[in-house]
Specification:
Number of helices: 2
Strand content: 35-45%
Helix content: 10-25%
Order of helices and strands: HEEEEEEEEEEEEEH
Bound molecules: calcium ion
CATH class: Mainly Beta
Structural class: alpha+beta
Number of domains: 1
Number of strands: 13
Distance between the termini: 13 Å
CATH topology: Jelly Rolls
Largest sheet: 7 strands, antiparallel
Radius of gyration: 21 Å
């Protein structure tokens, strides 16, 4: 009975630890942006902030011409970089980004990450959700949306529903491990 009890305590502790590690995914849908056509960045939602890293602030905006009718989205209509970071500086994993409209002719749009990830968007991504994920889109300090070569030939690029998951702080995992260790020790003493 005793070994079984020890086993169940350990399993319970481990599940608690795993539960705390698997943080909830956040979907940045931009729907809480102020209304009014082209809304300038920065924009904060779910503990993440989008800001203009380089380029013209009037070209890299949130577009919500018809709030409540047409979804709000991130609009790139000029060269530059929009950067996503986690508030407070924590790490995060990037799972996917929706591309409601892709109308680039001469421009190149690339999603890059602080972990060396790079995903060039193409016509085939139009009206789809682009999967990111993998090692190069995990444990990020930032995720960038980079536009280059944009010209009068190009229609704006729209992005929406950026899906990211905060990576738990090492201290949270450490506390969980400590709890497991203490419970195991207590079991041995008893
Ligand atoms: Ca959200
Ligand atoms: Ca939206």
């Amino acid at each position: 009975m005793k070994p079984n009890l020890f086993l169940s305590v350990t399993i319970l502790s481990l599940s608690a630890l795993l539960g705390s590690s698997s943080a909830r995914a956040a979907v940045i849908d931009l729907e809480s942006a102020a209304t009014g056509g082209s809304v300038p960045l920065p924009y904060t939602e779910d503990g993440f902030t989008l800001s203009v890293q380089s380029g013209s602030a009037s070209d890299l905006v949130i577009n919500n011409t018809n709030p409540g009718t047409i979804p709000s989205k991130l609009r790139m209509q000029g060269n530059g970089t929009i950067r996503l970071t986690r508030d407070g500086g924590g790490l995060f994993d990037a799972a996917s980004v929706q591309v409601p409209t892709f109308g680039l002719v001469s421009g190149t749009a690339t999603i890059t990450s602080s972990a060396g990830g790079s995903r060039v968007l193409t016509n085939g991504d139009n009206a789809t959700t682009v999967a990111l994920g993998g090692a190069t889109f995990s444990n990020l300090t930032h995720l960038d949306f980079v536009m280059s070569g944009f010209s009068g030939l190009d229609f704006p690029l729209d992005l929406d529903n950026i899906t990211v998951t905060p990576v738990p702080e090492p201290s949270v995992a450490a506390i969980g491990l400590l709890a497991v260790g203490m419970l195991a020790r207590r079991r041995r003493v008893l």
